[in-house]
Amino acid sequence: MPTSITTRRPHLDRERLLRELVPPPRFDAERFSTYRPDPAQPSQAAAVQRLEEYAAELASAAGNGSGGGGLGRLFRRGSGGRAAPKGVYLDGGFGVGKTHLLASLWHAAPEPKAFGTFVELTNLVGALGFSETVEALQGYRLVCIDEFELDDPGDTVLMATLLTRLAEAGVGLAATSNTLPGALGEGRFAAEDFLREIQKLADRFEVLTIDGEDYRHRGLAPSPPPLSDEEVSARVTDDGLCDNFDDVIRHLATVHPSRYHALLDGVGSVGWQGVHPVSDQMVALRLVVLADRLYDNDIPVYASGHPLGEVFTPELMQGGYRKKYFRAVSRLTALAREGAGEVAHGMG
């Protein structure tokens, strides 16, 4: 029988946070060879080629015996040494395959390596502390950061400092975002007050722009029609979670976003009854994190009420966090289609 999300109150330990810094299940099998570049968008094939070269550079450095820090001996600043290499930064719209490519790079790179979303990495710092996080990651050859966004000034300083420390240790860096690195934070806080920190981040990366349309919506209807409450209950699997949408919203406020991954442990499907537009920004941002974790774990979503494409109000969709909300809508719609049998897995 399906259960309720409100019965779940997961607790995480530090070891699990580090152990789970790998690509999500949706991208376990993805490689450069499984990415399908759009012939009409040459930037996609060019990105694949550059990332394959970057993976080869990491492997070459590992083969040359550079010890802790991966590229440390080859690229560390110091007497006679070279600066740490620029990371690679995948910029593009939703659904052009950035996460697919980032996961492919991770799979092709030598060990040790880490893969996490921006939120997961900031949560890691919160759990371990800054110094311990640097100590844990500075021995890696590659750190991949998916969905890079800066939501507040504290995150700007934190990530600029963390990436600077890792780059100086010779760690290869790769990131995806829907925003160019020089424009991070734009529209969300007084970015000009933190321009130096933002510029530090921009200087760490070689930008690869990936053009194209969202593969999740190519030739498909915007969203499946909402189900009835009875249909939602009938379609959620025995290992699923079925709740009133307002109960989901209230429960998310009691669980730290770093635990949303554990919140979905063993869940096969999710049902939301009475979906309605959300106008509160804090509630909306929690839903964004939950949508990302649902998508990472390939969990179908069944919903009644308003279409999932309308889960955020027009005001939110036009505000400073609009890119997060558009991504969440794109992913929730894809999961609803999968639940309805309308779409197969794609590039991500």
TrEMBL record:
Pfam families: AFG1_ATPase. Transmembrane segments: none annotated. GO terms for molecular function: ATP binding; ATP hydrolysis activity. The keyword Nucleotide-binding applies. The keyword Zinc-finger does not apply. Keywords: ATP-binding, Cell cycle, Cell division, Nucleotide-binding. This is Cell division protein ZapE. It comes from Pedococcus cremeus.
